Amino acid sequence: MDKKNDSRIELLQGTLDLMILRTLLFGPSHGHALAKHIRTASEDVLQVETGSLYPALHRLEARGWIEAEWRISDKGKRARFYRLTRTGRKQLQAEQSKWDELSAAIGRVLRPA
């Protein structure tokens, strides 16, 4: 394993949900593209495994935060494309606020004044 792979971080469920919702703000996407975007945007630090991604997508769909439909991908294959719902947009705002508060609190603990 190279040094770059050693720095990958396993994602907590809520964090993955937040990143999926945020990624879908850019528009509908299929699972592989979502995982690739998260990996690329994190400069290969965050690796979303299939075993985590698809249960998260199903969970978000069950909550009504995303919707899915079958389409043909850029590669000509049939794939489920996910899109953010109105409820999902509201949830994203709420989750982003919680994340901002949490990360600020952790920062205060790790780097006290």
Q: Mean pLDDT score, rounded? A: 90
Could you name the CATH topology?
Arc Repressor Mutant, subunit A
Count of separate DSSP helical elements: 5
Terminal CA distance: 38 Å
Relevant CATH superfamily: Winged helix-like DNA-binding domain superfamily/Winged helix DNA-binding domain
Name the overall outline: globular
Q: Which H/E pattern describes the elements?
A: HHEHHEEH
Please give the domain count: 1
SSE blueprint and pairings:
Layout: H1 3-6, H2 13-23, E1 29-30, H3 31-41, H4 50-62, E2 66-72, E3 78-84, H5 86-110
Antiparallel strand pairs: 1-3, 2-3
Architecture overview:
The longest helix is centred in the last third of the chain and has 25 residues, at 86-110. Helix 2 (13-23) crosses helix 4 and helix 2 crosses helix 5 (86-110). The chain is α+β, with helices and mostly antiparallel strands and 113 residues long. The chain has one domain: Arc Repressor Mutant, subunit A, CATH 1.10.10.10. The protein contains five helices and three strands. It is 57% helix and 14% strand. Strands 1-3-2 form a three-stranded antiparallel sheet. The termini are far apart. The chain has helices at 3-6, 13-23, 31-41, 50-62, 86-110; strands at residues 29-30, 66-72, 78-84.
Features:
14% strand, 113 residues, 3-stranded antiparallel β-sheet, 57% helix, alpha+beta, single chain
Short description:
The protein is of the alpha+beta class. It has helices spanning 3-6, 13-23, 31-41, 50-62, 86-110; strands at 29-30, 66-72, 78-84.
